């Protein structure tokens, strides 16, 4: 049983990722792996329940059987499609009914490390650092909720800041239903919580493949993965996450001491500071959500799949700190010189395709490599307002076009459900 | 001159206000919040309080609410501390006006402390004369100084204790003093916020921690309480007064007293620095390549000197009854040692280079200023400082004299083209002096020189007379492509940095003139003049490159730099 072709079906999920990887074999059979399924916003023109429509298409395409599901990390734009509903008709219900044999998630999702688990059984890496990191990540998601609540309650943010804050905070808010579904759609033996260097059963489930897990490293392997919170270990997120949601000016700290306003105006001599404080608060909340956004991105599972003669790289939204560890290993660097298809990390943001990685995949010459294919799922205008921070980032897109054959969901119409990319292996 | 109405007396110079001695978790034996009285400069005050250097505006951005300002009265007559006089703890701690008083008094006290040490007015690092203070700026465990906003912002948050009380960072003495020090240090040395060496990045935090801790330790109320937990006993056992015991009681005691709640805001610098055993070369260790950890080395070195100096002062106090000493004297000596050390630490800034500061430079500056004030080292301060810093792997600067102090400037200089009087205050005149002495000062012909400040430094000389020196800061910078830096200046350019890219390099120096206007010290970090300068610039480039400093578009202020001037944001956001 030899693989002959791989098809990557990239669904139009707007801002998000959803790829159905199908391996065709010489005996006419096929196996299907779903890599991520989520969205935080669709392009204008998308009608009806897009996620459910995609789930139904996956059901029909796979003939009712998924081999495996990969949820690279728990951001909404990667897992919201796994959410279920009470009437069992949610997109996540449809996927669960396809009875995958394996669900792959990063080690940070291991329930054994969960914040409230009693007597934390430290399954991996052997140190409480791992549990602490997971606890911090959990606190960060609560912080995202706080920030979202403050953003909604605040009357002082400028429009752009509000939009950006809402977008990033929403991605980071916990999606419990999807998390539960991902855990429960397979029996225990089919749950994998992976870190760098671990073997995966996916290799056996996809005959003719060889699969390497390149990330995320554990905190023990590479302390930098926990570094977004290192100005004071965990304390900050934990304290912050314990805050009750402020309720705007009605819930003033000192109700008996609030200075009245004439119409909406504060007293003349306080206005300068108030203006600065409001602006600063917006920036500060942005800095906070960006930090926690990066931290969760860095929990992404990075999969390197060698199928037949071709190599596929699916890095989720991994950023520099996650990649650093793998890129420090000479054998991994050699391996990365051979990538035929690269799923562009983090929808084309600036931090997710490290220079070293890009250099390895594309070689040093300036020529276009006809056989190098890149696939990107993204939507403009959701993130970032400068060239630096925009997703996708202009300079990266230019480089992708220059050095590879780029396929992006931006190139298809909103009403199209997907595009297919077929590669002979 | 305006007198107090109806008398021939001048206006009172000081106002006494009550502050929270450390933070509300530090209690007296009967469970009350430990308060302390501090003396600060008296001034005309508007409601806020808003004075000539500080304006408290109690705006809460999370709740979009402005709270009632505190009105302390104009200060023309004997000022009173009405708010703290009759109120209960509970009433005080939940009154925003008392919080305003607390921040106002601590900020003014630190400012006055700097001015006392330097004998001149000290500017904030931001534009304008008045620093805004927001005691309840937002709901978040955080506090910081922002140069752009000309403000100190203090957050508040809900306690994780079952009581669920609100914790106010503006009520923590060390937190307020720490943030104030950032604003003052930024005023004294603007270049210290620039991206440079690891040491410089660590210095802002470490120095602010030192000032904050010495400020707390200079309150007798605190020292007496943490010493052995028996502040009411007039005597103290002499066997408790050894270095190890004092470290345990005072420093650990204080670390323990500092409410855990606030550790997300203040960090753990005290605890972690006290726990560092001396005698290791920490500066080379991997974990101390992170700037906040590195700052702890500075804190450890200074706090150990503090203990050493306190002990020396205690030797002079006899025992009263069997093995016991007078508590009042012991406490007073401790507070005095802290206060004295605080003076030296502040004065040393004048003797630091304006750019690329290293811990070694700071040590040499400390030793030099102490030698200036006490030439014979009769209290052994220099010995204590040198030993303490060495214990944490910090040696005096390589270009310093054998005793670790800066070398005196011996070269002939040209004074005839400048005027003594103008040189005391005029930046243009100072620039002329530098221009005429470019060769004498070993300044490269390339680049642009800017005099950043010319300031007087006044103090009492050992003979009791007033001594006036002049401190001038210049920055020397050049912008050239990476290729030119490599080929023309011989600076190592990191591999991967585009050679066409324009890069700005900076050096600079502090010139100290004696009371006759003659150059006494030049404390400088050259631009590209010596091999050491080239090595330093190469190392700096490498570090900046690795931090992604050159990733952004050309001409764009890198994000790092933008964030860095807002210190302590996100309590030490990666920067």
**Poorly predicted sequence stretches spanning 5 or more consecutive residues of chain A:** 117-127, 228-233
What's the number of helices of chain A?
13
> How many domains of chain A?
1
Placed side by side, the strands forming the largest sheet of chain A appear as 6-5-4-3-2-1-13
The tally of helices of chain B reads 18
What class would the helix/strand composition of chain A place it in? alpha/beta
Main pleated sheet of chain B: 6 strands, mixed
Give the overall pLDDT of chain A as a whole number: 85
Helical content of chain A (DSSP H or I, runs of 4+): 25-40%
What's the CATH topology name of chain A?
Answer: Metallo-beta-lactamase, Chain A
Global morphology of chain B: globular
Descriptive key words:
heterodimer; A: 425 residues; alpha/beta; seven-stranded mixed β-sheet; six-stranded mixed β-sheet; 34% helix; B: 575 residues; alpha+beta; 3 domains; 18 helices; globular; disordered C terminus
Architecture blueprint of SSEs:
The complex is a heterodimer of chains A (425) and B (575).
Chain A: E1 3-11, E2 18-25, E3 30-37, H1 50-62, E4 68-70, H2 76-79, H3 91-96, E5 102-106, H4 128-153, H5 159-172, H6 176-184, E6 191-194, H7 202-205, E7 209-215, H8 235-241, H9 271-297, E8 302-307, E9 310-314, H10 320-327, H11 330-336, E10 341-343, H12 355-362, E11 373-376, H13 394-403, E12 405-408, E13 418-424
Parallel strand pairs in A: 3-4, 4-5, 5-6, 9-10, 10-11, 11-12
Antiparallel strand pairs in A: 1-2, 1-13, 2-3, 7-8, 8-9
Helix pairs in contact in A: 4-5, 4-8, 4-9, 5-9
Chain B: E1 14-20, E2 35-41, E3 54-56, E4 59-60, E5 65-66, H1 82-85, H2 89-93, H3 96-118, E6 131-139, E7 143-146, E8 151-158, E9 166-168, H4 173-188, H5 198-217, H6 220-228, E10 235-237, H7 243-257, H8 263-266, H9 269-274, H10 291-314, E11 324-326, H11 327-348, H12 359-373, H13 381-391, H14 420-423, H15 427-436, E12 448-460, E13 466-481, H16 482-487, E14 502-513, E15 519-525, H17 531-546, H18 559-564, E16 566-567
Parallel strand pairs in B: 3-6, 6-8
Antiparallel strand pairs in B: 1-2, 4-5, 7-8, 7-16, 8-9, 10-11, 12-13, 13-14, 14-15
